[in-house]
Amino acid sequence: MEKGQRIRRRIDAWLLALVMAASLVMVPANSVEAAETEIALNFTAGSTTAAGSADNQVSIDLGNGGYSSTDALKSGNITKLRVTFKVNAATAVGDMGVQAFINAKDCWEGNWKNISVSGTEQTVELDLTQYYNKSAELWNFGLQFENISDITYQITKAVLVQSDSSGTSSGGGSGEEVSSDEVSITTTKPTSNDYYTEFAFSVKNNTSSSFTGIQIVIPSSTSSTVQAWKSDVKAVYDSTIPGYVVYYNITLGAGATFSDTDYKVGISTGSSAFGTPYVKSINCSAPEGSGSGGSIGDTTTDLNLDIEYNYAKLLQESLYFYDANMCGPNVGENTALSWRGDCHTEDQRATYNGQTVDVSGGFHDAGDHVKFGLPQGYSAAVLALSYYEFGAAYDELGQTEHYKKIMDYFCDYFVNCTIYSDNTNKTGSVQAFCYQVGDGTDGSPSSDHGYWGAPENQSGYNRSNMTLFTTDSMTATDIVSISACALALHAYNFPNDAKSSQYLQTAKDLFAYAKSKAKTTYVVAQYASDSWEDDYCSAAAALYLATGDTAYQIELNNHYGSVNTGWLLCWNKTWGIASALKGDWNATYSIAGYGSTTTAQGFKFIDGWGSCRYNTAEQFLGLVYDKNKTTNSFGTWATGQMKYILGNNNNKRCFVVGYNANSSKYPHHRAASNSTDAAIVKDNHYVLLGALVGGPKDTSDSYTDSQSAYQENEVAIDYNATLVGAAAGLYLLHKDDADAINTLASQEELSSIGVTKCYGSGSGDSVSVTGVTLDKEELSLQLNGTKTGTLKAAITPATATNKAVTWSSTNTSIATVSGTGTSVTVTAVGVGTATIKVATKDGSYEAECTVRVTDPVTAFTLNKSSAVIHKGAAETLSVASTTPSEPKQLYTVSWASGNTAVASVNASTGAVTANGIGTTTITATITNADGSTVSNSCEVTVDVPLTQINLNSSTLKLKKGETTTIAASPYPDGAVLGDVKWSSDTPGVVTVSGSGAMVSVTAVKSGTATITAVSKANSSIKATCTVTVTTLLDAISFDVVSTELEKGDTKTITCTINPADADISSINWNSSAANIATVTGGSKVTVGRDGKATVTATITAVEKNDNKATITVTVVPKSGETKTATCSVSVVGKKVTGISISEKPTEAMTIGDTRILQATVSPADADDPSVRWTSNDETVATVNGSGMITAVGKGTVTITATAGDKTDTYTVKVNKKTQAAPDITYEVTNRTSTGFTIKGTVSNAGNTSGILEYSINGGASWVIPTNGEYTFTGLSAFKAYTVIARYQADIIYNVSSNAEQTRTVYTLVANPYTIDVSKLSDANYVDALRTESETATVSYDTSTDVLTLTDSSKTYTITGSNNNVTVKTAAGTTQTIILSNATIKNIDVTNTSNATVTMAGVSKVTGSISTVNTLTLNGSGTLNAGTITAKDINILGGTVIAKGGISAGDKVVISGSKTNVTATGSDGNPAISGRDITITDASVTATGGNGASAISSTGNITMEDANVTVNTTGDGSAPAIQAGEDDEYKITIDGGSVTGNSVDNMYSKNPVDSQGTTIATYKVSITDETANRNETKSINAGSSITLQAAGKKGYKAGWKDQTGKTYVDGATVTIEGDCSFTAMYTKISVTSVKVTVPVVELETGKTVTATVKVLPADAADTSVTWSSSNPAVAAVDSKGVITAKAKGSAVITATSNDTKVSDSVTITVKEASKPVEGSSEERDIKASSISVTASVKGAGSVPVKGTYKLAPKKSMTLKVAFAPENAVKEKVTFKSSNTKIAKVNAKGKITAGKKAGKATITVTSENGLKKTFKVQVMKKAVTKVKIKASKKTIKVKKTLQLKAVTSPSKTKASNSVYWKSSNSKIATVSSTGKVKGVKKGKVKITAIATDGSGKKATITIKVKK
Questions:
Q1: The whole model's pTM is what?
Q2: How far is the C-alpha of 1221 from the C-alpha of 404, rounded, in Å?
Q3: Residue 1830 near residue 1843, CB atoms below 8 Å
Q4: pLDDT tens per residue, range 549-602
Q5: Strand, coil or helix: what is 533?
Q6: What percent helix, strand, coil does the chain show, rounded to 5?
Q7: Phi/psi of residue 1549, each to 5°?
């Protein structure tokens, strides 16, 4: 950058491009008819009559025309299937139709057409181009008639159409024409100047219905650039109008208006005059040429200059620019340029919130030394995308190493810039991100930008003031996100790299940070961005790719709606990365093709600042598009543009520095200038190899090669990123061209310009490939299971320069291989065996993997899961369905019974015979051809037929209300009663309840009822019981027991009879003193409203008397005792008529208060006016005779005043006295792992006398302590309990507030000496690590992650995982630690003299284990450690892996037959070292560090009966085993074996045995080519080795030595001299073949599968060839399926393809017997399957598959068909799994409920055939159906695809429709809406919603000749 111009120029370019550039390419509007060639298919000529299937279909196989795959159709340019036929007669079942179909793997599709019975020729076609990209095995083509029960037809022609050329059709998206009255527009021109004119439109829908999509025409006679700013607006010039067609993808409701100036379009200079815009059509799609998919041609001219267009070299050299711009303290060791070194080392000491952080590394932005975050993240993301898309280019050219070093340098910097809460270990949460280092301001000499010179000389410059970090207000979402994108994509590209896991984790952490913070963009002026969504979506897409976590996909989709295709791929707009990773190729196309301006020489020109940068960005993204869409939309154009950049221009100027002699030489770059002033150009300036300069600054191709020309000669890391990507893509595009130049620059060439390391095969120090291996020799796949697998190739050596490989499959019909590079995917295609081969391009080394593809049955169902069979009867079980449904692999079924005494089964047919009463299990086992098996079973119950039901009673007598039981039993003995249906013929008299063998009967009322028991299995078997019910009189009563009357008064009294229906014969009334009172009444019974029988009488008071009269009623029942009731009558004077309490205060009372009430009695002269006072609850309040109330307790009380028989009441509430809340304090004591003690006190309780209570379960239950103390027991270890203490007040006082205290208490850990380190972050867990005396067993320092074991006398067990923790011991003499499946960082036992570490399970210590004295390792587990150091080290058991070596100050002892040690030394250090080393009975593998011994001792080394392997690395100068130099020190070996790779330098001195005898060592070579094993070892004399080959499928392994002596595999050989052993493989040949078939007699038309057993089973080739001696009688296919053709016999033979041995079986074929018409045999044909269709409102015969969507409260009716057609029609039942969602009646009518949901509908025939499907009730019904059409006119035999759109959306309502044609003789319509013209005329096509709403739409189609 220079003087702030870069950003200003970029903004100017952005604004100008918004109005001038166009990303869209016009497609010619004229159409071209392709010439055709017809290829005949197979069919039977002449008239044919056929019956329809169960689905009312007739299918005709036409063969595949010799094309075995859809790929073959594409390569053969087969575009159509065309069939011409006649229909002479047919019986229709609905609308007759026909479809030509294709039948391929996972693809059966056709093109529907209505047909007529006319005897004239009709034609149907199928477009085959739509299947080009399916890459599927093609089985056959065919013709299928639909909806017919029988048909007579004749095929006259069936052909495949081969097109000789392809044309381009016009008229895309024509839609419906409208008038200006229907849709009106208002046009505005918001901007118009010398450069462009903008148009904006306001659209009003004046119609009564909504529309989607509108095309507006801007008339113009001249064409120019047109651009739309929004992705849902398209624009293109159409010369046939002429004018610009603008398409808006909007939905506009009836009467609505759309107006948005953001949706404007711009037309650049060239169209000087415009007509008045008008609406062309609505309900349309975008015009052709305005979207993706067009082809962009080369706009440059080939000048035929002498220029080398070498994209391999371009890729190689373009990477070196990044070596020039490296920054930090590690430049010197990473750069490949001699003139670059370490710089800006002070970046290691930046500060963030007072903390020193390292933000060194990364790359300088351009020619200056600032590290800007946005271009750095963008550049890394583009480079990562380039490898993701074009990685094969890097691999083939040996550039992966260089590329990866650059990307690692980027990613390491991003990790450094990510500041964590634990930044030392880069763990915890992200706190900030460093988004800029350096001062980029203009004009300041002290700034980075103001400095001109080498970066190495600027290291003293302090730029901490310009080290910028994100904050909550400046989150820099764009920079953080694009950096995360680069990290994730790089980790995905190299999943097995050691750093990838950290890169991916950092990416996740950065994205989580960006997601959680407020969204802001970068505000630094030099690189200002106006959006973050593009970078955020790029990161989400990359993370979804790398992790598969759908949470990232959701984030991507949530923010992707703002995708902007109005600018190209650049540092400030990364939508191109997001769209490519998301697979949005329409957006990718638009972004890659943005703009249309070119220079005079045809160079695509976006802006004068960095024109080459923008150009290569479009090249790169366009090539990405082409690769993924398998097109050449951009390839030719990109090639021409890159040639211009490399020199194909009038000045022959190459804009890539160092590429050729005409390359730009003076880039604006401080380091390369070797100068201290931009104006001073030095002759000895450095070559900035591979740098892309800015390029032409205007459309006149102007360019100046000057160091000060900071516009034309600007260089930057973002410039080169897309250059690198484009170079990789162009290399892959052209590498196989006849004139391609793919050579790399040599070491000599590059070293002459300061390059110190040459990458790739062009370098002088290239490393050749010596071999290749695969990670698998065999791979098993399944067609319907594990269908894919991966293969990885390893190139030897790993440092090979050219690691490019090619992959192939020997049989692509069995397995295919896809992918590039060293990791590919293998996909199963068909059953069989194929070999996947990999071959290196360097040396043509090969490796192969045998892929076996099977299609076994993995599960199956039986026709019955349970069955009941009568003894002596039989039933046949069969396999109903298999998974997969149509396995491509043979299998057999066998049957077995669990108890043959109950039921036996035919082992091959599944026929079950019932033998004895009981239950058993019949098991079916399917054995697949590959030997795998799967089973299922049916539970069979055998019983005796039931002939009679016996009841325990035939008659019963019950009283009303009485209940008893009736029991049923079967007859005869041994019969099973089964389900019984019980009923009562008069439920009003007797009810029956229950089920099964015993039920309850209840007498309801008097009468007689019959109870019937009927067998559900046989309704003719029944039994009855007659029940008689009687009702007895229980009692009679008056409504009053006494009454008082005044003289002359009368009163009616009621007598109630209970029960009401008791039978009575008479009723008698009587008064005992007629002179006092008389009674009159009758015997009539009246039933009152309460349901009881009543009689009434009138009493008349005669005279007042001291005595009383007694009224008596007598009821005489029909049976039982007579009942009487009496009422006493007194005749009195004037009585009280009323009483009222005068005042009733509403205020509540408080305990202790009094209140006086007064009552008034009416009349005042009543005979007795006295008042009586009572209280209904004297515990609350009492009342005295004067009406004074006294409150005594809390509650509510009612006071009653009574005078005579009159009362009045008063209710009042009494409250406690109020007292302030007391203070509660308590403490927790005596914590254990099962409980704790609470001790509390209460103070300031005042006058109350309450109690203290505790609860630990949220108040669900409370306990009362003793003296405030209570111990909770029986609790769980280390669990949080909430303790609540509360005060309950006494009955007099209330506390004024909540007197309650709550706290959380943790119980102790069960064993405080067992530490789970994964829980150390929980302070409560650490605190709970205590003894019951509350003594802590550990201490934990969270700042250092040091866990100290405080008691050295105890044994501690460490478990769990925590990569940061260091376990440290306290001071002491001994310490024992058990590691049980633990992962920690370090064990520090330096405070303890002696330590023992016992291993249990698999544990890991990532750092070191160290102690000052003795360390003992034992146990039976495994320990993975870093370094192990101590004075003395004893390893006495288990497996120890020390990746940093084992080092003792004194002794190392490794002992024990179960002790295994693997140690690796660091660089320059031995794996095992000490003063004396002893290894006894143990197995040890030691590998020394670079240049060091494996085992090194300053004293003796003793190995007794040990198996020791020692290896060295480096130059081999150090002996593998090094003992002390003095003669007194020895290497002693007694027994066992010692081997190693240092064949010439094994020992520092000759080893001896315990007797002092020198032991000789020998060289042993072992070669096994199958495993690429070729090794030479040094082995002691007398040691033994085991010869174990890797093995090869189908071959027997063995060995031979250098003398020719042979050995069996696995042999143990004692070594007595130098020797060599080579693995030999002998092919295992087939010795016998055995053929078996289930039956040898077949009827014509039947099939049987023969199986073959090949021995030995492990032979190399077990395949066979099947043949028939007479195929006309019995034919056999390649799978052994035998088909009976005609009467006779044939010999079926299986012949080994290996040794030609064979076996045969003779098959006899007889004519199929035909049942006599009307016979029972014919009538008894059982259906084998059922199918279901549905009729709904407006549509019939709708297919029912999977899930049927139905509107709420709508219905559909099912129709069931049986197969075969002549099968007996069975009764069917219908059942719904959820009748609240959808119910179905007995006739198959399904009615949807109100609620949305799913219900499973099951259709079952009486013989057990089932069909199930789901009915999904949608939220709403379809309210509208619209038909979209690109046009309304078609030609005869041409097709038009219609689209039906339903409202509401498919998430709320169904989107399924049924298509109909009003006249199929004019045009037919398929089930998918494809219309085909038949003859001239007009026809209405209707789309009917299938959800039952009946909504439909109709469109009129005109058919022309």
A1: 0.41
A2: 73
A3: no
A4: 999 999 999 999 878 887 899 999 999 999 999 999 988 998 998 888 899 999
A5: helix
A6: 15, 45, 45
A7: -150, 160
